[in-house]
Amino acid sequence: MVALGLGVLFGCILSLFLPAVPPFFVLWLLLASVAFFSWRRCWFCVGLALYFLSWHWGLISHQRAVTALLQTPVTSLEGRITSIPRHYERSSQFELTVLQGPATGYKVQVHWFQPKEPLYAGQIWQLPVQLHALRDQASRDGFSAERQALVQQQLARASVRSDQPAVLLGNQPLLRQRAFTAMQQATDSLPSQSLLLALTLGERQFSISEWQGLRHAALGHLLAISGLHIGLVFGWCCYLLLPLRLLGLPPHWQHRAKLVLALAAATTYAWLAGFAIPTVRALLGLCLLVLYSWHWQRLSYHRFWLLLVALLLLIQPLWSLTPGFWLSVGAVGLIFIFLWRFPAQGAGWLAKLKRLVGFHLFLTLCMMPFTVLFFGGISLLALLSNLLFVPWCSLAAIPVLLATACLQAVQPAWAAWLWPWVDALFAPLLWWLNVAASNHELWWRLPELPWALLLVMSVSLLLLVLLRQRLMLLFATLSCLPAWYLLQQQPDWRLHLLDVGQGQAVLLQYRQHGILYDAGPAWGHGSATEQLVLPYLHQVGVRALHYLVLSHEHAEVLGHWPVLRQYYPTVQVVTDVPTAHAALPCSNMPQQFFNAELVVLQDWSSVGNEQQPSCALWLDVAGWRILLPGAMQPADEARLLQDYPGLQADIVLLGRYGRNQSASLDYLQQLQPKLVLSSHAHSERVARPAPRVTARLEALQIPLLSTSRQGTIQIAMGPDSVQIYSKRAHRVPFWLDSMQSEAVPAPVRR
User: Fold this and answer.
1) What is the pLDDT of residue 749?
2) How far apart are CA 640 and CA 645, in angstroms?
3) Pairing with 327, which of 227, 280, 482, 632 sits 20 to 30 Å away (CA)?
4) Is domain 493-740 classified as CATH 3.10.20.310?
């Protein structure tokens, strides 16, 4: 059993670093390998082959469905709404499970601008749609849209077309939708409504501030229904079912009845949470525990953990693509190690308090490498937050909340008296999250550390705790020296070109200070400013945003820029856009930002028969010259060369997303750039940059980096060289790009 589990785990880790998905005939080789190694009783190899068989079959099936959907002319989809729709000011989003065609059973993310009918989970629709491939964008907080799509069996994004009618085929809301509507109405006036909905129905509709508070306080796991919550319901039910012994049943029947009823309650809770992936993982682990407890059998900690991991990976191997899987199984493994290495001693309250503090200290220290790897930093409040609110929520807040939710289903009038008390129980947690959100210093951002270094640090920390020897203390200290060295070697200046789709946002960062050039695009229900740019600023450690430069008046660069003032109240907006109030004109922008030189190249760009103001910037940063051209047209580029005959730039951002007439040969020859950047959407039907622009760059041997291929681009500038980091080039698994390139049709060139 141990060898089989190790084989599955080794196969899972190995699959993350394969350069490409093997062809279909490999399935037959894997089947033959399973048969051969089973005959030879090489259980490690059996586990390895079983994992690759399950993994390969899942990927091939998903890839075929994506290809059938995206590379054929699909104009409408018939499907059932399976998620609770999220409604915005002018649009709605939901998950649609396809009911007909080659993609039957798979899901599509649907965005519907101004739907004419109320939307509920359970409705069946025939929708005229425009399909788009799913793709990662600017965020580096561990979330990946492409990996998440594989895990949740989502094939594409779809926008409902307004030029054709949508037909409602079935209008029977799901029971979970009714429960959500009732809960939402009952808690509508409560400040903690978002927390209550997250802990009862798994609907985490948090604001940006609440998400930031969860990260700074390291309490995201507390508000995501997972093993802690499913186990809590199971444990409380087992405790409440102790009076079963009064029925006079034989002890083994009492034990089994308690297990069945408690498991049924935990399953009901998982259903309320929509059988989200973390709840399904927790429920499978609980079923395994119940199975062994049913037969009065015990497993050692390491055997149970390996069996659990192998079971999860064989049922759904693609779960390994999400950080949540590794955080969950890592936390369970660390809990088992703590229980084995530090058995309970003493029965008094002081001994229990010491054990509680020691447990959270052990878990916090050992989980730090995971948070650095997946989220790029650590929370200074992690230990204190978990010491305060995990016991509080487990013993008081969550049990009362779930009891009130059950009462809401049978006696809403009685439950109405209890909801204010439930809100009062969650008031300390809500206050704590608000305080954490407003203090950026609580989140200590770390640089991109190699995963091998993080692995060594994790193992050394674990050995230090387990062995408690002076030699291990020395080893743990030495293993942290490379991380300390990397921290000291971080360059002061960085240029970030964010992948925000059809638009642009450029960040110039000096340590914890920044200048943002454009705020990304806006769309129907929101903007890249809120969903991508603002989280990215927090993640890369920008605590003081000094200037926001809006180059010209267009939705592709303005986004929802006022939201930045809510989180950076001292930011100075620099623009000539007339609708921007309390803004500094471009001509009055300071010429110095720390030791960088700023020059405003103001021009008036032609748009149709009108003239609109545009703000172009030339920067000298650590000896590197950067040109951000704003909305320059070809005529503006020619005039720029006349006005500044000696102008040169080492790094140039293409104006107007690299359309045909932009970046002329004269323009490029005078600037003599060493690197050209381009910001545009991956899903554009017209190739960007235009083939003529690309040909000119190739003729002059100028490298081109674009957000459509590289994703978010970071350029670290030193006195003698620059280091370029592309998010997509360093992401795991390595084979993900090959799958996406096969699934997405080539753009139309002109």
Assistant:
1) 34
2) 8
3) 482
4) no
pLDDT tens for each residue of 688-700: 677 888 888 888 8
The rounded Cα 415 to chain-centroid distance in angstroms is: 35
Task: Give domain limits for the chain.
Answer: 2-70, 76-173, 180-445, 451-488, 493-740
Torsion sign across C-alpha atoms 148, 154, 155, 156: negative
- The pair of structure tokens assigned to 288 is 């395994």
pLDDT at 135 over 80: no
Residue holding tokens 């090489």? 42
pLDDT at residue 184 is higher than 90: yes
In order of 360, 393, 662, the CA distances from 365 in angstroms are 8, 22, 53
| Greatest distance between any 2 Cα atoms in the chain | 98
DSSP one-letter code for 714 = E
- My answer on whether omega of the bond before 73 falls inside 30° of 0, hence cis, is no
Joined together, the tokens standing for residue 241 give: 């079912």
The whole-number average pLDDT for the span 387-406 is 94
- pLDDT (0 to 100) of residue 577: 84
CA distance 616 to 108: 40
Q: What is the distance of C-alpha 109 from the center of its chain? A: 16
Closest Cα partner for 592 from 584, 602, 604, 600?
Answer: 600
Q: Please, what is the end-to-end C-alpha distance for the chain in angstroms?
A: 59
For residue 688, report the phi and psi dihedrals to the nearest 5 degrees.
Answer: -135, 135
Mean pLDDT of 718-727: 81
Rounded Cα gap, residues 462 and 96, in angstroms: 44
* 513, β-bridge pairs: 510, 544
> 46: Cβ–Cβ under 8 A, 6 or more apart, which residues?
4, 7, 34, 37, 38
Q: What is the pLDDT of residues 557-601, one digit of tens each?
A: 888 888 888 888 899 999 888 878 778 888 888 889 998 999 988
Tokens of 472: 């291990």
| CA 353 – CA 348 distance, rounded (Å) | 9
Nearest CA to 493 out of 720, 727, 730 is that of: 720
| Residue type at position 681 | A
Q: How far apart are CA 560 and CA 537, in angstroms?
A: 15
Taking the mean position of all CA atoms in its chain, how far away is CA 501?
17
- Angle (CA) 588-592-597 rounded to 5° is 110
CB 21 within 8 A of CB 739: yes
Residues whose CB is less than 8 angstroms from the CB of residue 397 and which lie 6 or more positions away in sequence, other chains included: 422, 425, 426, 429
Whole-structure pTM over 0.85, yes or no? no
Q: Which two tokens stand for residue 428?
A: 């300390």
- Candidate from 454-468, 581-595, 656-670 with smallest mean pLDDT: 454-468
Which contiguous run of DSSP H or E holds residue 603?
Answer: strand 596-607
Higher local confidence (pLDDT), 64 or 611: 64
Per-chain mean pLDDT for the chain = 83
Which residue, 237, 236, 335, 225, is CA-closest to 281? Answer: 225
Q: Residue 733: is the preceding peptide bond cis (ω within 30°)?
A: yes
Strands 610-621 and 513-517, how do they pair?
A: unpaired
Token pair 């698994």 is at which residue? 733
Q: Supply the DSSP string of 478-527, one letter for each residue.
A: HHHHHHHHHHHT--SEEEEE---SSS--EEEEETTEEEEE----B-SS-B
Rounded CA separation 617/611 (Å): 19
**Residues in a beta bridge with 510:** 493, 513
Interval 205-224: pLDDT, tens? 888 788 889 989 999 999 99
Q: Is 112 exposed, middle or buried (0-12, 13-18, 19+ CB in 10 A)?
A: buried
β-pairing, 675-678 vs 651-653, is: parallel
Tokens 């497993």 — which residue?
299
Residue 226 burial (CB count, 10 A): 23
Look at residue 489 and tell me whether its pLDDT is greater than 60.
Answer: no
Per the CB < 8 A criterion, the answer to whether 516 and 496 are in contact is: no
